[in-house]
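User: I've been going back and forth on whether these two constructs are worth ordering. Before I decide, could you fold them both?

Assistant: Sure. I'll take them in the order you sent them. The first construct and its structure tokens:
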Amino acid sequence: MKLRILAIGVVNLLLLAGVAQGQTTTGFPQLPPVPQTGQLPANPAATNFTFIVAGDNRPASKTATQPKTLSRVLADAQRFNPAFFLWCGDTISGHTADGPTLKQQYGAFISIASAAKVPVFNAPGNHEMDLVTKNGNTTIETPSAQLLAFYLQYMYPPNSPSSAYGAFNFGNSRFIAMNTEEVAPSDLVRSPGRVVASGLKLDPGYVSPEQINLLTQDLAANKDKAHIFVFMHHPIKPNKAPAGLNVATANQLQQLFQNYANVSFVFAAHEHLYYNANTNTLTPPKWQSGSAPVYLITGGAGAPLDKCGTNTGYCGAYYHYLVVNVDGDTINVQVVALPEKLKKSKAKK
């Protein structure tokens, strides 16, 4: 009996500790930072801070050698004194279930990510989560439970939740990382998905009802936050429609986010470019209390660049990252392009 009482007491202390740090007891589990990038200090009173958003640094070929652009992004961003980085996936070339290969690839990314000097939080992409297989004459990409296990092994600390989504608090804001690469039921009808130049048919992404249920709980439990930032890999509002998240899921999430006045920005990657779906200008609109969610794609951290499509909004095919400044109820976003790539690119409206 004494042992049971002691065990209950320990659990209660852990729960109280989580609440004391501003963590909700419903919704998404606590999101750990990328290993070797440090821990985020508790700072519940912060109302003015800066963070960086980027994604899609993965190598062009199946190698562990990261593109130099990744290091350049991390180094250049130091001048803004960020509190942390949000990363929108495709950290490795992946697309394999070979354990030693993945260990080497994740190790190379983690080693470079440590140069951020602050915690880096990642939402996984298709290269971390999907296998490439042959189906007749077609090469297809398919989310894999095996690759999820490898991702959790190398990118999460021991005894972490068995999901690749999570959330954390900083200052007056909540940050939610979604996994848009879950394993879908085999009989589920989804969007066709994009076919890239190599002939590979990309998966259109999938978000399970379980994840959406937890997301709904999380949003409801954090109405008191000034801002909620969501980051993911597959975009809800893509530059090129076939590159977007499965249409039915994207519509469901967009409607859900509209129900919460504090959902401020939704960041994604997958397309290797910068895309502002909200206006035809480079700089996205300033977010103020009462504004609608702003959707941005930031996939320019080192992967081979895409070409802009003809969709409305502003598109720029160059290497870049985003600087997000939270100032009370107001948010400003700056797009920082790496200079030599900006000169060679052609932005399309």
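The second construct, handled the same way:
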Amino acid sequence: MSIPTKNIYCISGLGADERAFDRLDVGGYSLRHLNWISPLPNENLSSYARRMLNDVKENNPVILGLSFGGMIAIEMAKQIATEKLILISTVKTYAEIPNWMRMAGILRLNRLIPIKPNRFTEKADDRRMGIETKEEKNFVDHYRKNADQQYVSWAVNQILNWKNTWVPSNAFHIHGEKDKMFPLKNIHANYIVKNGTHIMILNKADEISAYIEQILLP
């Protein structure tokens, strides 16, 4: 009799979908992507995470959050018991958010500056993301072109104004050495991926998968 596969519930980065996890390979586990839902008017991150939990169909789940999805994962862990929380290329608390993001939130710059990218902001964003190949550029550009701008505006506002100070004891953070979106100097990580950028899940998937398997050991 075969042993049933366990689930890892995965939450992708801002606006991305399940393809962000295509290159991960975690033995004995099935990756189940939690789809983004439309935010309600004036909804906060806690309420949003609670509604996303409707798609988690088991008790004490393993939850994996990538980038913005890591923030959602922590908000979920405030509301349900989890077996383990795996955080990749993200921040866990307000203290780990870069100063420029904190200041942008305080000054509400996101409300003054249009969210829709242009050729100037894209170049800066590409550098922060760590895009190095045409394939990576195409991957990111796909989401830029197809993202719901109302959702993106809401999500950016949540990121800039997230004031979390709590980190669950069963959280494990995997972070890139060269992440420019969330610089390592601000991060308390359990595992550091050498030369890893903010989109290392695309080009360092084997190493990340190995770390995830270590985390999931009994």
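Notes on the second construct follow. The first strand starts at residue 6 and ends at 11. Residues 6-215 form a domain with the Rossmann fold fold (CATH 3.40.50.1820).
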